[in-house]
Amino acid sequence: MFEILYRRKADVVRHRTAPFAEGRERYLRHCAEQGGTWGRLRTNAKWMCWAAARMSPNDCRGVNAARLHDLVRGAGLTPESAETYEQSIRPWWKFMGWWDEESKPVPFGSQLEQFISWMRDERGLSAKTIDVRRRRIAGFLHWCADTRRDLATMRPEDLDAYFMSCATQRWSRVSVASMATILRVFLRHAASTGACRTGVAESIVGPTTYKLASLPYALSWEDVQRVLASASSDTPRDVRDRAILMLLAIYGWRSCEVAALRLDQIDWTRRQLQVWRSKCRQPQVYPLQTSVAEALARYIDTMRPTVTHPQVFIRLQAPRRPISPQAIYYLVSQRLRALDIQAAHLGPHALRHACATKLLADGLTLKEIGDHLGHHSTSATMIYTKVNLSALREVGDFDLGGLQ
Q: What is the CATH topology of the domain spanning 221-392?
């Protein structure tokens, strides 16, 4: 790899004779396979060689952020060079398995791990649901440790104090109700293992919520068309983003479903798309509309990087790995804000809601719309009946005659 990056024999020898040459070359080859540019590869090679000359043999047993900062401070680098140095060295150390992640341990971690195993092995919950509950409960356990409360002696008054402290974070009624449910389940499980008192979970009473209490944050179909028009150029970003936006708006897919779409889920011969519905726990097949097929084909044939990943949508910059749901949220939000579109939430779900509202306006039944969106029951689709403005206008125009 060094012979490819450098023409001068002296440069090749310098990199070959520096410590950890095999590991550095292996990492550079990995970066090249992920789509790294030659300029970036040379920058990485330069700083890795520089760091290798200053590392000790013990660093192979484990390095952390403190060790990285020590090397930077000892070099007397400018702030700009120090930042470039860290961006080049940290991924290399992680690739080699030397990096020690410094994460704050979760108090009562054994109880949390038992709860996670119970949700996964006995309840069979989805990975997304388990991750959400894990983060919520971890936050609660950190609060217990910070306020010197013990899980074994937890009282209803302590739980009241926790929810009062959450009020300062401006949680919505729905968020409070959701946390109350999650915490109730966790404490019931903890009581079954003897980690907390029996009956504490039953003291949690969440606020009353109403399924149709709020309007969905749908965009108008004109705004959806404006968003699609904003990605109509021939740049790699617009070509990729247009295909993503069409899947969100036309099929009403969730961002995680778009991110997980694989090449083998596109049947060009039968003109079909297949998506795995995690909530329904089964695949769903969609007809591949002409406009969507053209957008996907244009991206895959002309702009998609040559990588081994089966996912359709790939990052534009190295490392060339599949795009994440968080990145999809960012690209949608960025385009909506650039167009000065006003909505309660500016993300992929706004396009999903717009899709449902459009289908309702076109006369589809709630069952048909729910099937299209992958809803488990029609109750999840009922909220869209409140935005059928044409039906509301018909009611408003109804003549009651001479009734007083």
A: hpI Integrase; Chain A (1.10.443)
